[in-house]
Structures are given as structure tokens and as C-alpha cells.
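To whoever is covering the structure queue this week,

Two jobs came back overnight. Logging them here so there's a record in the thread.

Job A:
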Amino acid sequence: MRLAAAVGVVGLALVAGLPPAIAHAAGGGLQPFQMVRSLQLVQDRIASGDHAALPMQRKLLEMIDAKLRQGDSEELGEPRNFRAMLVYAMSGGNPTTIEAAMARLDIDSENRGIGAGILNYLTGRPKEAQTALAAVDPMLAPPELGAFLALVKGSLIALEQPRSALTLFDQARLLGPGTLVEEAALRRIVDICGTMGDAACFVAASSQYVRNYLRSPYASQFADSFVSGIVALNAPLGLDRIEKIVAMMDAEQQQVIYLRVARRAAIDGLTELSAFASEKAKRKAIGPRQEEDPRALLYSSLASVTSDSIEEVQAKIDRIDRSKLSDSDRRLLDAVRAVAAEVTAEPPVPNPSAAASPAGEAAKPAVAPVAGADPARAGGVLVAAPRESPVIETAKADETTDPATALVAETRKKLDAIDKLLGEAAK
């Protein structure tokens, strides 16, 4: 049965297009460090976009897990195998297996501290992990382990010490160029630089990721950070630099990025950026018919509803196919239509009966006298009791009697409603 399983794994490796040496290593019968080295080669293929290697990765992780569970303390305590065990843990391995294996080993306090730090990180105890790894210098460890240690340490302090985290992520890239570790480090750098407002760092890291790792199965996480960074760095970044980075993607990827930027920019009220991204998304429309994307029309309408002529906005939203929008985008469409309808509505006609009485004519009381009370009189004219907060009441009455002012006020209310709706959509 073991032979059959090994043959099956070797066959899977060959089908995945992996070199024969890796296929042999996958067959088992090797030491842990050899198997983990095969795992790293497979993961490097995945980082470069070879998704066919994903099944091989799962198989190798399962086989290494079994190997470590069965391994004796002498084999696992050998330095190369111990380091490989830690690399396996940080490569998607089973923390329970590592914890059980370490309990059987007689190792020095430094290695035990590193192992404890990694286990704490993998099991969701960041403070304990940070304490255990505080004195560890990734640059002094063997490169295959040091790259992972730098990545883990950087991830632990990214929120509190972003600058120090960037240094650690650069170390991870230096120790593991072209690997899944570098791919992960670049994703984190893009996120941090966008949050910190460092446009130069953001452009450099984004460009490197797009050139080398855009076909990675984790590229969607990069896209999240990339879009957020573009919106956050809108002013210092500039539209030309955004266009240069996105131009390195294929047409479908460009359209997706521009659509996401257009939506986020519209939500944040960045009219110029949203209009730019919407127009780019329309130009990058894919498919044989090159049809207008309803999302691009919607987001450009959101961006221009208060700047373009209402006729232009109305023409845009009239072309939108509601059935092709998501539920949240349909709500945005309804909001834009509500504003457009409000702006194009006929202004209210003043009520003639509300006009002021001619000079010298006695004013009618605003409030009827209370039954049984003696009304106050001045010059034979009935004086109504004063209303509460007369200045406020008068201001409101004056505002509603001006059709133009009333229309502006009502439109502002609609825009405030859109802002609230967009904020909820962003969440």
C-alpha cells in the first residue's frame, strides 16, 4: 500500500510538470529535510503562477506530516531535519504535529525558543510569539529558515512598528528571492506602504509584484492592498504612475482593477480618480462585443453626479442594465437615480395665499386665542401669543418660500443619503 501511494504521488508530480528529482523526493523514503526541500520547490512554482502544482503541495504536506509523526528523536533532532521541520510549519504545516515532535526532542534553549515562537505565531498567540523571537536575527540563520523567520517577525510587528516591519520584509526577500516567501513579503510591503502614505515605496513594491507574481494564487490579496493604496495615495501617487503599473497586467486584470478603484474612489468622494478609473475600465472591456460595462457607467455616474450636467448623468444611468449589477450596486444605482430625479424635478410653485398682507391691513392672528382667556389687545388688533423659538420658525418659513433654496437643500439631503449608503456599501 505504501508503494502504491508513493507511485501515485510520483505520477501526480510528473503530471504537474515537475522535474523528475522532485517527483522522486515526493515518493517518500527520504529524510525530512529532503522532503521539505521538495515542498519549497513546488511552492516556488506556485508563486510563479503554476496552479497545477497545488495538488502536489497538498500531497507533500500530508506526507511530511506523516513522516514527522513517525520520526524518532534522533532523526528529527539532526540540525537539517530540525530546521526543515520549522520550515514545514511555516509553509502550511500542522502545528499539532510540530508541537508533538518538539516534545520528544532534546534541543538547546535557542532552538526551543525559536520553535516556541513559531508555534505561538501559528496558533494565534502573537504577543508570546513576539517575545520568543525578539532576540532572533533572521540574517544569522540559514537562508531557508531565516527568510521565514524574517517574514514571521515582520508580520508580528507590522501594525505597531511598520518601518521595522519593512526592514524585516526586505530581509525575507533578500534571503528568499523568487520564492513564495518573497511573494508574501511583497504583498505585505504594498499594504504597509499604502497605509503609511509612502508613495515611492508603494510604487516600487507594487511594480515588482506585478512583474513577478501576478499569477500567484494569492494575487487577490495583493489586489486588495493595491486598490486601497491607490485610493489612499491618490494625490501623491498621480494618475500617470497608476496607469504605468496597471499597464503591466493583461486586459482582464486591468479592467478588474480599474473597476474596483472607480468604486472605492466614488465611495470616498474622489471624483477625478473615479472618473479616470471608470473611463479606463470602459476602454479595457473584454469580450468579442466590447459591450459597455454597467459597473463602469454606474461608478462614473457616482463620480460626476454633482459636477457634470444632469442630462449627461441621466443619459449614463439610462444605459445601465440593472440585471447585470450586484445587489449593493443596484442600491447605488437607485441612489444616483434619486438625485437625478430630484435635480430635474419641477421647482415648487409658491402658494399665493402665503403672500404678505397689504400695508395697513390688519394681520390675522397666527394662533387662535385660548377659550375663556382675555386676549391682549394693542390698538384694537388681536395679538397672538408668541410662538416658541420665533427666529428659528421664521428662518424655516423663509427658506421654504424660496424655490431655488428649497431645491438645493433637498438635493443636499439626497447627497448626504448617498454618502451614507456608500459608506455602508464600503463596509
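Job B:
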Amino acid sequence: MSKVLAIGASRNIGYYSSLRLLDLGYTVTFLLRKPECFDHDAAITRFVKDGKARLVKGDALVKSDVERAWAEAAKGGDDLAVDFMLFTVGGTPSFKLTKGFIIEPPNLVTQSLLNVLETLPADSPDVRIITISSIGLTRESHNALPRALKPVYSYTLTAPHKDKCGAEEVLAHAAGWTWDVRDSAGEEILGTSWADRVPEPASLKRLVVIRPALLTDGECAADKPPKRAGKEAYRVKEGDVNGSWTISRRDVAHFIVEKVAKNWDEWEGKRVSIAY
């Protein structure tokens, strides 16, 4: 039995990824503030009925709720190990003319991730962690954006991207990756003594960070016949993809399941960008 803990999967990338995993036979445990969000979702409820989808009521900002979700995800099978942690937390933004899109709390992603890493169970030492970030967060990545997108990222997405930048800083610390201190999200996002809450530096190896381009609600191009023989539906590259404009949430989910989960050794320990 392959077991997944999905946090932030009530919709969007996490949701589409979880459906694919369930269809492949994985058992997926969802941590949800409102489990009733799936009450009328036939695609999920059929898996709830057969025990393959488990719904745990809780908030990723509450450490004890995350601990409880880990414990539930580990149940069943011959051992108590969780195979994958899928972290796709992202708040519902609101727009303010002077600030662009904002989320509440402003450090939702970073603090939720800190809770996940702080509660990593000893029974799952080999859990593989997949997290969603974004292109354009760091100075280097922002410089690689198409010129027309730079104002969009600088103005409208500053607040949510600062939060995701904090999450990437946490992961870079735990994985032993280089991190430019000029890109730090600061104590407002990270909090004080945050490094004491995560694994020792360079100890987190079974990790993939995915940085999508500007997300759309389009169809999954990868599920359709290619328009041209030999042409991939999307581009993926360690670091930044040149000319990164958009990518659909469904295609990011396709990459997570069909590429990363199925070919883990190829992607482990990498920060990759994905775009059309």
C-alpha cells in the first residue's frame, strides 16, 4: 500500500494530483479545514467510501493537527511509513489596489510548511516530499521572467510570493541548497528561531520543489495527443525555464504524478521550473 499525505489539496494542483494518485491505487490522506468541501464531489467520495481517500479535519497552521494527519496517513499496510508528502498549500487571495493580491495570514505557506517539517514522523524516514512554489520569487528567477510579466509579479503577486519565498528558504536550509540572503523573507514571514523547527541543515534529501509559471485553469495538455511528434506538452528544467509564461494547474499535477512520483530518482533533490 502506497500512502500519501496531501496538505493544501482541497482544490487546484493538490486536488488534481491527488485524483491521479487515487486512480493509480494510492491511499491519500487529506488534511482539510472543511472536509465537507468534498461532500458533493463524486470523484473523491467514491474513494472515501472504499477507504482509499481519508479526510482529516484540521488546519496546517496548527501543529497538533499536522501531527494527527501524519498519524492517520501512516495507517494500513505492513508498516507505518508514509511514502509521499504532497504540500500544495496556498491561500485564497484578495486584491487591494495599493498592495495587489494578499493572503491572510501573510505567512500561511511558510508556517504550514514549518509545521510539516517539525512533525516529520520517525516511522517515515524515507518519506518523499513534493512542494509547490513559483517562478520569479528570487532575484535571479525574477530576472529570468519575460519582460512583460515582471510588473505583474512585482506588483500583484508580491505578498503571496514573499510567503512562498520564505518556504523556499526553509527548504534550502534543510536540504543544504544555496540561498542568497538578499532573498530572505525575514522574520515577518519566517518567525524567530525558525531554523530550530526544521531538520538539520543538508539533512533533507528526499525533496523536490516545483516552480510553475503563471498558473491557469486550462485543460491538461499532456493528456492529449501531441500537436507535433516528439514535442512534449510542457517544458521542465532545473533552475529557470526561458520564456516562462503560463502552465495549467492540471499539467503541473500531471508532472507531479506521471513524472516525479513515477521516476523519483530522476528528480530527487532538485528545484525545477515548469512552463509551456
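Note for Job B: The chain has a mean pLDDT of 94.

Please reply-all if you pick these up so we don't duplicate work.
Q.
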